[in-house]
Design brief:
- This protein has about 190 residues and is an all-alpha fold.
- It folds into 2 domains: about 50 residues, Homeodomain-like (Arc Repressor Mutant, subunit A), CATH 1.10.10.60; about 140 residues, Orthogonal Bundle (Tetracycline Repressor, domain 2).
- The chain has 10 helices and no strands.
- The chain is elongated, with a radius of gyration of 18 Å.
- The N and C termini lie far apart (about 65 Å).
Length: about 190
Amino acid sequence: MARPRNEDRRNAILSAATRAIASQGLGVPTAAIAKEAGVSNGSLFVYFDTKAALLNELYVALKTEMVATALAGLPVESEPRERVLHMWMQWLRWATISPEKRRALAQLQVSDDITAASHQAVNSASSAIADLLEQSRAGGPMQDAPLSFVLTLTNAIAETTIDAIIREPAEAETLTRVAFDAIWRVIADA
């Protein structure tokens, strides 16, 4: 008879995997993740059939959390610029408050173990962000560029800004605004 699954234990494994990947990389053994979570290696496989399954679930969970944070409290009746600014501020806040999650997510995003289904789940969860950027770039210099390029460009500027904020926390507000203004000019030319 299969052992019953405990949601707290599953979450502990995901949290431990986040910390372990952030500090040791994707090659971290499942035994180290299990030890960090306070469970046996066998118990880890009760919740995740394979290490790849664990990585995929973690990728979707982290990316979904980041998107949900970025969209939380979005002023839907505001002009696109105000909505994008809100999303930008929330995204940077999540990344700077959660450095381990950000580091783990950065590694997971380039992992060959992440499946097309996981990428699709993340794309679905991120559709509101994509829609907002699509609306914002209408008539701007990026209107004819592929949306994936606009998203990648925005992400690159965000990552650079986050790194700068982590190095110079006293400059966080200024860096956040300057980077947003740059993105807005590139996307919307307004």
